[in-house]
């Protein structure tokens, strides 16, 4: 089967990558809803788990399709957890300033209060920080991490990701145009297995690119970038 061959090829390209079709509860999507990172929903289809460790930071990612009471799909994309090396207390949410509102989506309110963090205009333009532990938020959101999150926005080709921190993890939701293992070349016309493999590799590499960016590494060049 073409999909099985593509999965095998991608796992061989990404060191230590583990894939499972049945995702179970490997990523806690209820926690993402509670943090206002994923919308409230009536049903959730969670599948296609993949995970690995990069720079000593383990990640877990699953594909999610969330639907409301009218069976309309209100979110399709990746739910990602990245284990952070340093513990922290409280919950922190980065609310997007540039995400247009939608009448068909309801969100839980972010935890805590809005925090006015000084500096880093590019970060301030993208995010409003909410937290139930302002001191922890100020310690965690260093200038380097703010830059990494701004760079991450540039890396995702226009996908308006949401991010937060809780339970020792960086938590992200990344909307996708296609399901992770939806093979566009199954449509009428010539097959393009090479293009399908490239697209699948790019999606499964997203958490790796995130971790590289958090470490100040440009995922494309492998070089370092400045904190601001």
Please give a quick description of this structure.
The protein is of the alpha+beta class and 228 residues long. The protein has helices at 2-13, 29-34, 121-126, 134-140, 143-155, 193-204, 206-214; strands at 18-22, 43-54, 57-67, 73-83, 92-96, 113-115, 127-131, 162-166, 169-175. The protein has one domain (2-214).
Explain what this protein looks like in three dimensions:
With 228 residues, the protein is an alpha+beta fold. It has one domain (2-214). The chain is 29% helix and 28% strand. It has 7 helices and 9 strands; from the N terminus they run H-E-H-E-E-E-E-E-H-E-H-H-E-E-H-H. Strands 1-2-3-4-9-8-5-7-6 form a 9-stranded antiparallel β-sheet. The model has no long low-confidence stretch (mean pLDDT 85).
List its salient traits.
228 residues; alpha+beta; 7 helices; 9 strands; 29% helix
